[in-house]
Amino acid sequence: MAYQIKIPSCVFAGTGSIKELEVILKKEETKKVLIFTDKGVIGAGLLKNLQEVLENVGVQYKIFEDLKPEPAYQDVERVVEEVNKSEGDLIVAIGGGSVMDAAKLCSLLKNSDYSVKDLLENPLLADKKMKTVMIPTTCGTGAEATCNAIVAIPEEQSKKGIVNDNMIPDYVILDSQTIAGLPPKIVAATGVDALAHVVECFTSKKATPLSDTYALAGAKLIFRNIEEAYQNPNNMEAKNNMMLGAFYGGVAITGSGTTAVHALSYPLGGKYHIAHGVSNAILFAHVMAFNKDACEERLAILCDAVYPEFSEKSAEEKADYIIQRIAEIVKNTDIPTDLSTFGVKIDDLDFLVDAGSKQQRLLVNNRKELSLEDIRSIYLKVLK
User: Fold this and answer.
1) How far is CA 77 from CA 73, 209, 294, in A?
2) In CATH, what class is 10-179?
3) 214-241 pLDDT, tens digit each
């Protein structure tokens, strides 16, 4: 069987690597940059270093900052309208997953004759119109590495991923300075999202030796550093490791794909606006416990890679330990573990089961098929 992985063509990493943007600007002979960001990034002062680089080399720029967290497709279409009025020859996105996803979509949509809604129906309509540079400011979404963009669909009260190879970023800058002041709450939510990426991709039906390489490398970094990055905000080594692990998780997605954790989390974000990483975290251990009998050997291999001190244990014990660690990490990073915190009630169960079961793009990756009753049982575990 042939298999592949897609990866950004050039990645800069390490403290202070945002200065390498100057290399990119010169290589691309950039005259004007379209910057995608949000008010939170600006308020945290994270745009200053980027602006300094642009001003040092005399490159003009226009800032698009009115980007909503976890946007609906209509929100992205409004941004596209503004982008269409602007001249520019390079897109630079600095922010979290929503910012980067919107930027990736705009790189396909600028002055096009198709819309975001059209791409929801047929994502292969699109070609890249502008090159992109992704600078993540969280340590978890992996959006800087993927060919995916996730948007909410309000009329369906859910979310959907648009997947097109042309959205693979051209350049990535992983500068841990951008997450030096990241609030612990965001470290937790995005970090567990990244953890879900590596575990799901490694246990996916579509896993390959290429995706496994990145998923295992990411798992080692994230399992070993997430609690430290959360509990000790000044530990920049832990944060740097989280940023790198998140990137590896994003690369793994392009070669494999997430599974039922992400599938069942989409309705939670789409209807109840629960942050993506948090909704994944609530479901994560329960889904993996359900999947255990279908991926015990994979979880054991993962345990060997991350926790070699358990090498003498049985495959079942190793699988159980990985699931246990997932639950412990969610608890130790103070993420809520049930949906009542967000006002989700037992009366919402039928909606959740129906909406979750429709996420077939991801459910087909799950090694164990989920019936409607299986989905219902999983949601019931987090409805208290």
Assistant:
1) 6, 37, 41
2) alpha beta
3) 999 999 999 999 999 999 999 999 999 9
